[in-house]
Amino acid sequence: MDHPKTLLVTGAGNGIGRATTMHFHGLGWRVIGLDRDAEALAELRDALPREHALLLTCNVGREGEVNAAFARIEEWLGADPLDCLVNNAGIADPYAGPLDQLALKDWQAWIDASLTAAFLVTRASLPLLRRAEGASIANISSTRAVMSEPETFAYAAAKGGLDALTHSLAVSLGPLIRVNAIRPGWIETGPWQKSGARTHPEHSPQDRDQHPAGRIGRPEDIAEAVAYLHGAGFVTGQHLNIDGGMTAKMIYEH
């Protein structure tokens, strides 16, 4: 009997990570979620059957915590493989303030939360991914890897590094493991936060109109892109903008 496929998502407690975890669970996958937000994970734990979900509190930017989490993951999986890894963790707020006031520790926090975490979790996942047929990794980057707003230095650098890590991993780990990046644009994550932080904002017509697709993005859009890339056996080393066409549109101030 074939084993059920298994997905691992970092930053699984809220937003894109939460939506991706729930999307794949709905497809019949087992899901593993890592997040430093214990409260958000507790909500997910109540929503998912224990035999199909392993949710662990973990700061994925710290090597010791990643190693401890993977000891538990390996025990839970037994001899089964990990089929898909989603490196989604990161600091959501991109704004760092003026460069001359940016402390090194704050710069490092952005880098560690996204780029260092992707390195640590991918390295720890390799033995489990290598057990699978058609394993894939999706790194959740950002359109800010290729375009910027003011004062987003560390966030942009972390996501740009994640883009470069993506093509390097694809070349190094193929053909057994395919690796791609997804660059979300404006994704409204409010409805996918834990209950105490959940919002349902109303967007203006101007907000919607700057997207050729005619709307703001949803976390489900990213989850569907992860599913597409996992099944797309001839796609690796790519960087897929999921932004409603926003980066393709010239926008002028009037």
Automatic annotation (TrEMBL):
Pfam families: adh_short_C2. PANTHER family: OXIDOREDUCTASE, SHORT-CHAIN DEHYDROGENASE/REDUCTASE FAMILY (AFU_ORTHOLOGUE AFUA_5G02870), SHORT-CHAIN DEHYDROGENASE_REDUCTASE FAMILY PROTEIN. SMART domains: PKS_KR. Residues 5-189 form the Ketoreductase domain. It comes from Qipengyuania mesophila. This is SDR family oxidoreductase. Residues 199-216 have a biased composition (Basic and acidic residues). Keywords: Oxidoreductase. Belongs to the short-chain dehydrogenases/reductases (SDR) family. Residues 190-216 are annotated as: Disordered.
